[in-house]
Write a structure and sequence with these properties.
Blueprint (H helix, E strand, L loop, with lengths): L1 H13 L5 E6 L4 E4 L1 H7 L3 H4 L4 H4 L9 H8 L3 E9 L5 E13 L2 E11 L1 H18 L21 H14 L5 E5 L5 H10 L8 E5 L5 H9 L15 H4 L4 E5 L6 H13 L1 E3 L6 E3 L3 E6 L3 H7 L4 H7 L2 E5 L6 H19 L5 E2 L1 H9 L5 H15 L5 E2 L28 H19 L4 H8 L3 H10 L3
Parallel strand pairs: 6-11, 6-12, 7-8, 8-11, 13-14
Antiparallel strand pairs: 1-2, 1-5, 3-4, 4-5, 9-10
Helix pairs in contact: 7-8, 14-16, 17-18, 18-19
Length: 463
């Protein structure tokens, strides 16, 4: 009697809720199909109930169905957009939550709860078209993305502690020194500190200290004065442009030692003097500095001035590498899937267990940036699949997969001497970078060249 009453109640609920409910058994036949789902898909219950799913939706393949994917892979698919055709060829767009149904760990079916967003989708596309027309005259203007802490994900305890320090730093105007390997997200944290702090309405500018020759960096930072040297013009530097805001000095350990002394003086005295100029210009700029090597070691080596380090290291933030954040690898991958689903117009729903294992076991010398590029590559090569499997994850077979020129056969046919030498040089650089986990300073030291020289060659060879 009780079970009969429960059955009646369940039927009433199913047929009066606004969400569509579709249940299939382990053979893929529909056993529950409520009125909301019938309205959503513009079909009748008699067209679907007790029939194989792929027989009803004849244009749909197994890997295109959220229900069959949940059933066959034993996974939950949460809030996934799906576009498909009903039995009459009408396009339907839904947001689905789909889960396998288990009985003593045995999969006996799958249930899907769907919301209709077809009309919302059409409205959104209309708005986007109108915006495109409005923005057409300014299409050449590139909008620079502003990052905040909402754009940063991490549940790892050490990483969460670093973010906690960064959030507190955002409430102050003190100098910040961020240490982390290449690709760990140092600039994202720096931008978040600025855009969630008291200076958020003022400029945020960034300069990579390794990206310019030594002779140009001083003029870029402090500006130039007409007549100061041949060809000089009156031009404000980054300190003047960032006045009232924040200046990010990326890879500050690459700044020439003599220039570090001038920077220290600016920070202590609160004014700059343009190169070749005589006028002192007051400035109010917050400095955030970053390095991909341990700052204390850089000081010991004489690469970073001790007095400058102590002036900048008021709030130190250490960003752990991705290999130390195993708990974050899969969630980060899922966030990148969502991002590139939109960019590439794909509908990838999940990552297979073997693909997850492959991601977790890799050492990620390029950190989060390398992980994002790996997921981007996986989605760019997927056609109609909805699951990333291990074959889609393209990683070096070992962490020392790059080989140097000594272990590589150079084909000298139809190549001149310069081309042969460039190929050997590029191979040596790639080999050294890989051995040093893409730490540019260590690789430059191993190769016996200046960091700026190596940075230039990396750009030249597009490594």
């Amino acid at each position: 009697m009780k079970s009969k009453f429960q059955q009646i109640v369940m039927q009433k609920i199913l047929h009066h809720i606004q969400e569509g409910v579709h249940v299939i058994d382990k053979e893929g036949n529909t056993v529950v199909y409520n009125e909301a789902m019938a309205r959503l898909e513009d079909m009748k219950e008699v067209d679907v109930i007790k029939k194989p799913l792929l027989e009803v939706f004849k244009g749909m393949k197994i890997n295109e169905s959220t229900l069959l994917t949940a059933l066959n892979n034993k996974v939950d698919i949460i809030n996934k957009k799906q576009t498909y055709l009903n039995k009459d060829g009408k396009e339907i767009t839904t947001i689905n939550t789909t889960m396998p149904l288990l009985n003593n760990k045995e999969v006996v079916g799958a249930i899907e709860i769907a919301k209709n967003i077809t009309e919302i989708q059409e409205m959104s596309e209309t708005i986007l078209e109108l915006q495109k027309e409005i923005n057409t005259p300014n299409r050449r203007i590139k909008k620079i993305k502003k990052y905040t802490f909402e754009n940063i994900y991490g549940k790892d305890l050490e990483f969460s502690a670093s973010l906690s320090i960064a959030r507190k730093a955002a409430k102050t105007t003190a100098s910040v020194f961020i240490y982390g390997e290449t690709g760990t997200g140092k600039e994202l944290i720096a931008q978040s500190i600025h855009y969630e702090g008291p200076r958020k309405a003022m400029p945020f500018l960034a300069q990579n200290c390794a990206a310019l020759p030594e002779s140009l960096l001083e003029g870029i930072l402090f500006g130039t004065s007409k007549g100061g040297f041949t060809g000089a013009i009156d031009r404000p530097g980054l300190f003047e442009q960032a006045n009232g805001g924040t200046l990010l000095l990326d890879e500050i350990n690459s700044m020439p030692y003599e220039l570090q002394a001038k920077l220290l003086r600016v920070l202590q005295e609160g004014y700059i003097r343009r190169v070749g100029g005589m006028k002192d210009i007051p400035i109010d700029v917050r400095i955030i500095a970053t390095t991909n090597e341990q700052p204390s070691l850089l000081v010991d080596k004489g690469i970073l001035r001790k007095d400058l380090y102590y002036r900048l290291n008021i709030i130190p933030i250490n960003v752990p590498p991705l290999r130390a954040r195993k708990v974050d690898i899969v969630p980060l991958s899922e966030r990148f899937i969502k991002k590139y689903n939109e960019i590439y117009e794909k509908e990838v729903w999940l990552i297979s267990d073997k693909a997850k294992e492959k991601l977790i076991n890799y050492s990620w010398p390029g950190n989060v940036r390398e992980l994002e590029n790996t997921i981007m590559a996986a989605l760019s090569m997927i056609d109609d699949e909805h699951v990333i499997n291990e074959n889609n994850i393209l990683l070096p077979e070992t962490d020392n997969s790059f080989v140097g020129a000594t272990a590589k056969q150079i084909d000298i046919s139809k190549k001149n001497l310069n081309q042969i030498l460039e190929e050997i040089e590029m191979s040596l650089i790639m080999d050294s970078l890989k051995r040093n986990s893409f730490n540019i300073s260590k690789a430059a030291n191993e190769l016996g060249i200046k960091r700026q020289t190596l940075q230039h060659k990396i750009k030249k060879y597009k490594i």
